[in-house]
Write a structure and sequence with these properties.
The protein is α/β, with parallel strands linked by helices. The chain folds into two domains: about 150 residues, Rossmann fold (3-Layer(aba) Sandwich); about 150 residues, Rossmann fold (3-Layer(aba) Sandwich), CATH 3.40.50. The protein is built from 14 helices and twelve strands. Helix 4 packs across helix 5, helix 12 crosses helix 13 and helix 13 packs across helix 14. It is globular. The protein binds nicotinamide-adenine-dinucleotide (NAD). Nicotinamide-adenine-dinucleotide binds next to helix 7 and strand 7.
């Protein structure tokens, strides 16, 4: 799918065949076996992967995931997408992604620590703050990043905080990193409403997913005066046409671990949530939730893609034909996370910590500039925002490759 999407954009850009080939294929695909001792004394070998799509514009940046479905193909596709996201945001990074095929839910902390440290050792020749900088992804977290920092730093003989991002604050993580993605989604969605001439104060929003991205997107929108009328999580969906009290909803969520059962709203069928009338629809949970079965029924003015890949290519065609929904594609809408990861890396390299206000102000400026570029390109070339975003990104990488030339 990633390669097909690339070909479509390369056709649109009329990329030369040589540049097309150089942009499409990943630079390095690394597979390692990772043997660890299980708690029962047995030895088990896991398989770990890291794909470094390009190092043309800087070190590669991207998450490390622990999940049973991880394989080289999936990691290569995710690395390619990260490559375009970094280029679109004009971050001095290429795209990377890594993973270990394992089920972290069935492993003890000790086993996860041994797995992470051994994987880091196996990766030692291929990573570094100027080469490859990992971050948390599905199944990994701040603690995983702390173990990688420690393993790498012990090996080097001194603390190297720039080896990963998404670290705990006490190891020179960045303020604002945890909320950054959702905050970016809320910021982008409200800007889009503004562009459409719709008042943000008093506007309505529906948010699918109430994890890191969804809850922070909802809180950010609400802080601008947007009424959060519908939210959902894996357990179900709730609705209040007048808007929910977010303080009370957060308290309920923290106490119960779900939005369901909140007494300030009514339960509704989750399948109906996405097609409720609202100004902003923010899918912040799963991929492919807007498809050809429901795209024609959306009743939002702005579709803010917090999740990765929430809209299928068939749904995209329907939304393009309709022309009445402003789509903020995932590649920019949820780019707050990687952008603040970049800030974390910069702070680590400079040994200079920024305030949260500084982080958020810089983030908002970069998101706004990038979306402005996308809108201008889409208008000039009469293409969708998604095509515009991908075209800008691929052109950026192709131009950098062209400038560097082809080393013999
Ligand atoms: P998370 O695990 O914190 O939250 C996921 C949420 O989705 C949970 O509330 C879960 O209950 C809900 N959910 C699961 N199945 C659902 C269903 N069928 N219907 C409704 N809700 C459902 O994950 P997250 O970090 O918030 O990531 C969400 C999405 O955003 C993913 O697509 C991820 O790739 C993307 N993303 C995350 C970040 C980040 O910084 N966390 C950055 C970029 C993109």
């Amino acid at each position: 799918m990633a390669a097909e999407q690339f070909d479509k954009v390369a056709d649109f850009l009329k990329l030369d065949d040589d540049l097309r080939e150089r942009c499409k294929w990943p630079k390095r695909l690394i597979t390692v076996s990772v043997p660890i001792e299980r708690d029962d004394g047995s030895t088990e070998v896991f398989f770990g992967y890291r794909v470094q799509h390009h190092l043309t514009r800087g070190p590669v940046k991207g998450g490390l995931r622990y999940h049973p479905a991880v394989d080289l193909g999936e990691i290569a596709a995710l690395a390619m997408w990260m490559n375009w996201k970094c280029a679109l945001m004009d971050l001095p990074f290429g795209g990377g992604k890594g993973g270990i095929s394992c089920d972290p839910r069935t492993m003890s902390d000790g086993e996860l620590e041994r797995l992470t440290r051994r994987f880091t050792m196996e990766m030692m020749p291929f990573i570094g703050p100027d080469v490859d900088v990992m971050a948390p992804d599905m199944g990994t977290n701040e603690q995983t990043m702390a173990w990688i920092t420690d393993t790498y730093s012990v090996h080097m003989g001194h603390l190297v905080p720039g080896i990963v991002t998404g670290k705990p604050l006490n190891l020179q993580g960045s303020s604002g990193r945890t909320r950054a993605t959702g905050q970016g989604v809320g910021f982008m969605a409200s800007n889009a409403l503004h562009e459409l001439g719709v008042s943000v104060d008093g506007a309505t929003a529906v948010v699918q997913g109430f994890g890191n991205v969804g809850s922070n997107a909802a809180l950010t929108l609400n802080s601008y005066g947007v009424k959060i009328c519908g939210v959902s999580d894996v357990n179900g969906a709730i609705w209040n046409a007048g808007g929910m009290d977010m303080k009370k909803l957060m308290a309920h969520y923290e106490a119960t671990g779900t939005v369901v059962g909140f007494d300030g709203a009514e339960e509704m069928a989750p399948c109906g949530l996405l097609i409720q009338e609202c100004d902003i629809l923010a899918p912040c949970a799963l991929d492919r939730v807007i498809d050809k079965s429901n795209a024609a029924d959306l009743k939002c003015k702005v579709l803010a893609e917090g999740a990765n890949g929430p809209t299928t290519p068939e749904a995209d065609v329907i939304l393009d034909d309709r022309g009445d929904v402003m789509v903020i594609p995932d590649v920019v809408c949820n780019a707050g996370g990687v952008t603040v990861s970049y800030f974390e890396w910069v702070q680590n390299m400079q040994r200079f910590l920024w305030s949260e206000r500084e982080v958020i102000t810089r983030l908002e400026t970069m998101l706004q500039q990038t979306f402005g570029k996308i809108r201008a390109y889409a208008n000039d070339h009469q293409v969708s925002n998604r095509m515009a975003a991908q075209a800008i990104a691929i052109r950026t990488v192709a131009d950098a490759k062209k400038s560097r030339g082809l080393f013999p």
